[in-house]
Structure formats: C-alpha cells, structure tokens
C-alpha cells in the first residue's frame, strides 16, 4: 500500500515536471516570436528613417550641383553595404576566400546580352551543319 502511494506520487511529480517544462518551452518560443516581430518592426522603421534622411541629403546635394550618383548608390534599400541581392531586408556582402578578404564585385547587367545573334556564325565556324 505504501509502495503504491509512493509510485503514484512519483508519477504525478513526473507529469507535473513535464507539464512545467512544456509550459516554459512554449513561453520561450512565444517570447522569441515576439522578439522577431519587434525586431522586424524596428528594422522597417529604421529603414524608413534612413530613406527619408538620404532623400533630403540627395536633394540638398542636387541643389548644390554636386554629383549624387554615389549618394544614390548608398541609399539603396537594405541593411548592409554589400553588393549582393537583397534577401528580405539584408543586402549581404560576399568576401573572397583568401587572405585579402576583399568584397567580391557585382557583375549584374541591366540589359541582357544578345548571344543568339552570334550563334549561327559560331556554328559555321566550328563546322556544324544544319
């Protein structure tokens, strides 16, 4: 009888411990999610403030007849000074895998290359028929 009571009490303690552990885990997950949402809001607000500031600086430079191309480049959307594509709100920078650690250049073209027009000439030169 005494043994059964002890075993029953042990089971209740284990169950209470598991429930408490699960509740703590859920609370941590909820706090993480709230933190992510708050960070996203802060990032969006900071980006908005920066774009407003950048627009004012560019307008002032334009009125002073200064070169604004560098300012336009710096005011691109996205956190980070990278030359890579924007992922969400981050513009990553990619470094070279050697001891210099220099940022890789951006070779993005604004227009497509016209490769198809030269294909027929290449085929003739290489000896393909048809």
UniProtKB/TrEMBL annotation:
* Disordered as annotated region, ranges: 1-32
Please note every region of biased composition (Basic and acidic residues).
Answer: 1-11
UniProt lists compositionally biased (Basic residues) regions at 12-25
User: What is the recorded name of this protein?
Assistant: Uncharacterized protein
